[in-house]
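Final report, Chapter 2: Outcomes

The project's central promise was a pipeline that accepts a single protein chain and returns its three-dimensional structure in a standardized token representation, suitable for archiving and comparison. That pipeline is now operational. To close this chapter, we reproduce one record exactly as it appears in the project archive, with the input sequence first and the structure output second.
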Amino acid sequence: MSIQERKAREFNRRESEILTAALALFGRADWELVTVEEISRKAEVGKGTIYKHFESKDEIYARLALEFNRKLLAQIQQADILPVIARFREMTRVAWEAHLSSKELHRVVLYCGRAEFRRNLPARISEELKAVEAATNKAINATIMQGVEEGLFPRKPLDMLMFGAQSAFWGAVQLIWSGYLNERDKAKYCDEITNFILTGLIYQDRRL
């Protein structure tokens, strides 16, 4: 390994440690008030080192969200070979796992989705976030539209088809993080909500 490669490896390792330290601090109730100085102490590096890796605390938030979204996209894309219903179930399963794996990450991802937050980001990372989110939406939308073409879902505008599904998913995630389930089986609950979402998609046009 060359000196340059060793330095790059060390740089990436330290950057990862900074992100890990920041995420640990974002578990606090007042997580939005965490300072760069607190992150530097947690990561055991100087404050100046933080700024060698990130322009601001907002960029730390954005990098955490970007890594989260990249992992989610990679898992969603692995389901491409499955039939529509099985693919939708698998996409939903990995979305449950991602958003329920860490309350800190979940809240950071939601925070980074706000328009006012995006306006203050450096253009480079803002565009990276948009690109990953667009690719994720494209994969999900393609699955829904294939279901429409195969006659599995009603022929309606995509936003109308997805509104109920998105509402059910995000509402369930918030309920779970609020402690609603207590000791009940989280995986079973998520499976039931997935069934509810699919039923709503398939029978959306049926009159009650």
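Archive annotation: The first helix runs from residue 3 to 25.
This record, like all others produced under the grant, will remain available to the consortium after the project formally closes.
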